[in-house]
């Protein structure tokens, strides 16, 4: 007999309120601890079911925003988790590390700057040593600083954006191959900016298009070796990236309201796609970009 009741469903339009932030400005890197309104990383809501039991993950930029939500979800799914972050983000990192520990998993903090080539070169080995292995790499760290005019975008910014967003992915993914067993996953954070570049995010959007090509090409290369490479492409998500010069201040009050759901996403809404791509159930999924963007058409 079918159940006569109606299951309780979330309406995605009203699940979270529109983000109408008060005026705020943080230096780069922004902190979740100072973000207003606070973002949801699934602290109160994400329920695991052992989908990543015994797995070992390194998440760059795992201190805040999307990376923090992924770290909490991975731990609750049974994975040991190392997070990489900038030393200035220690306060955010501590909160995420304590969430991982509260889930009963090993939590490893690896502070450093991906612009420091020595740190970049040893990060993956350090994570694998601390976790006694590695089978998930989430390349999620990102730099986004708006510039309205090309004349305001100097070569130094272009270069650092490329270093953090895409060049580090080559180094970290290459290093991961020393550790990743068959069945392992690399998951890269790209963006809707890869296909719909904003005029004021030229350098950033260009790196995200590069990440898409990197993801698909590397997936073809590593597929035969049993390692899957995929990407997640978020739309507008309420994170400290946006208030630390990621967007012009006059755009923040309506941030994310131009998508079909009419609101910005919360980091917690990104976690499940990253979980899915890492699981064995996604074993036939590679070279894919999962768009999580509130309904904007994407290729
Ligand atoms: P976030 O600020 O919380 O995370 C970005 C992280 O990148 C920081 O926490 C920091 O640890 C790391 N990072 C930046 N520069 C670094 C450096 N030099 N060395 C080491 N780490 C560095 O913001 P987020 O929005 O959660 O960003 C995570 C990813 O999501 C980024 O790749 C971003 O491009 C992408 N993304 C975000 C949105 C959005 O709307 N928030 C949309 C699409 C894509
Ligand atoms: Mg951060």
Automatic annotation (TrEMBL):
Family note: Belongs to the short-chain dehydrogenases/reductases (SDR) family.
Alphabetical keyword list: Oxidoreductase
Residue stretches spanning the membrane: none
InterPro entries the UniProt entry points to: NAD(P)-bd_dom_sf (IPR036291), Sc_DH/Rdtase_CS (IPR020904), SDR_fam (IPR002347)
PROSITE patterns linked to this entry: ADH_SHORT
Gene3D superfamilies (UniProt xref): NAD(P)-binding Rossmann-like Domain
Origin organism lineage: Bacteria, Bacillati, Actinomycetota, Actinomycetes, Micrococcales
Full protein name: Dehydrogenase
Record region (Disordered): 1-47
Compositionally biased residues, Basic and acidic residues: 31-46
């Amino acid at each position: 007999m079918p159940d006569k009741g109606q299951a309780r469903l979330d309406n995605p339009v009203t699940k979270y309120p529109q983000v109408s932030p008060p005026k705020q400005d943080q230096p780069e890197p922004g902190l979740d601890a100072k973000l207003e309104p606070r973002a949801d990383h699934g602290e109160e809501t994400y329920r695991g079911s052992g989908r990543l039991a015994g797995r070992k993950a390194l998440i760059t930029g795992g201190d805040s925003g999307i990376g923090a939500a992924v770290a909490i979800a991975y731990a609750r799914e049974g994975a040991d988790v190392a997070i990489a972050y900038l030393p200035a983000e220690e306060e955010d990192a501590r909160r995420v590390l304590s969430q991982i520990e509260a889930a009963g998993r090993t939590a490893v903090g690896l502070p450093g700057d991906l612009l420091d080539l020595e740190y970049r070169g040893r990060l993956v080995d350090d994570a694998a040593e601390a976790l006694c292995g590695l089978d998930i790499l989430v390349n999620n760290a990102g730099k986004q600083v708006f510039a309205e005019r090309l004349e305001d975008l100097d070569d130094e910014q272009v270069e650092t954006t490329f270093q953090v967003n895409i060049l580090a992915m080559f180094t970290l993914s290459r290093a991961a191959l020393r550790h990743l067993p068959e069945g392992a996953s690399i998951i890269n954070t790209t963006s809707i900016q890869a296909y719909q570049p904003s005029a004021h995010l030229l350098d950033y959007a260009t790196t995200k298009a590069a990440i898409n090509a990197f993801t698909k090409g590397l997936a073809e290369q590593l597929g035969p070796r049993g390692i899957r490479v995929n990407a997640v492409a978020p739309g507008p998500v309420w994170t400290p990236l946006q208030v630390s010069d990621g967007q012009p201040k006059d755009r923040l009050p309506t941030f994310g309201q131009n998508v079909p759901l009419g609101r910005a996403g919360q980091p917690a809404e990104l976690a499940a796609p990253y979980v899915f791509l890492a699981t064995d159930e996604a074993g036939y999924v590679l070279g894919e970009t999962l768009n999580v963007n509130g309904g904007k058409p994407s290729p």
